[in-house]
Amino acid sequence: QVQLVESGGGLVQPGGSLRLSCAASRSIFSIYTMGWYRQAPGKQRELVATITSGGSTNYADSVKGRFTISRNNAKNTVYLRMNSLKPEDTAIYYCKTDVGNWGQGTQVTVSS
């Protein structure tokens, strides 16, 4: 069982930036495709971005050009760099492995 711990969320003004981190508990992290998801109040959880073990990435249309997913396999960590944040990016952000392990989430609030 892989445990995931997200960090880096917080309150930021519109147009600001944040970097989220997701640390995995096992060294076999490198074989997983990792994903970032988010859930806003009253809405379904949605996919934000994924990154394969080889580094190929995929993004939701709503974040393309603003968010960047990356990984450091030596540190068992996946990142989500979020730029040009908008109020509609406000949500709890979760990371997930492609075998169904979820983190506990980190809150991102974009507000002036």
Quick overview:
By secondary structure, the protein is mostly beta strands. Helices cover 0% and strands 47% of the residues. It has strands spanning 4-7, 10-12, 18-24, 34-39, 46-51, 57-59, 67-72, 77-82, 91-97, 106-110.
Percent of residues in helices comes to: under 10%
Q: Give the CA-based shape.
A: globular
Major sheet: size, sense and barrel closure? 6 strands, mixed
Strands of the biggest beta sheet: in what spatial order?
Answer: 2-10-9-4-5-6
- Mean pLDDT across the residues is 94
Percent strand? over 45%
- The residue ranges in which pLDDT falls below 50 over 5 or more consecutive positions are none
Distance between the termini: 40 Å
| N-to-C SSE string, H for helix and E for strand | EEEEEEEEEE
> Over the alpha carbons, how many angstroms does the gyration radius reach?
13 Å
Number of helices: 0
Summing up helix and strand content along with how strands pair, one would put the structural category as mainly beta
The total strand number stands at: 10
What this model shows, in words?
The protein is an all-beta fold and 112 residues long. Helix content is 0%, strand content 47%. The chain has no helices and ten strands. It has strands at 4-7, 10-12, 18-24, 34-39, 46-51, 57-59, 67-72, 77-82, 91-97, 106-110. The strands form two sheets. The chain has a six-stranded mixed beta sheet with strand order 2-10-9-4-5-6, with no helix packed on it. A hairpin with a 4-residue loop joins strand 7 and strand 8. It is globular and about 40 Å long. The mean pLDDT is 94.
Task: Give the secondary structure arrangement, pairings included.
Blueprint lengths: L3 E4 L2 E3 L5 E7 L9 E6 L6 E6 L5 E3 L7 E6 L4 E6 L8 E7 L8 E5 L2
Parallel strand pairs: 2-10
Antiparallel strand pairs: 1-3, 3-8, 4-5, 4-9, 5-6, 7-8, 9-10
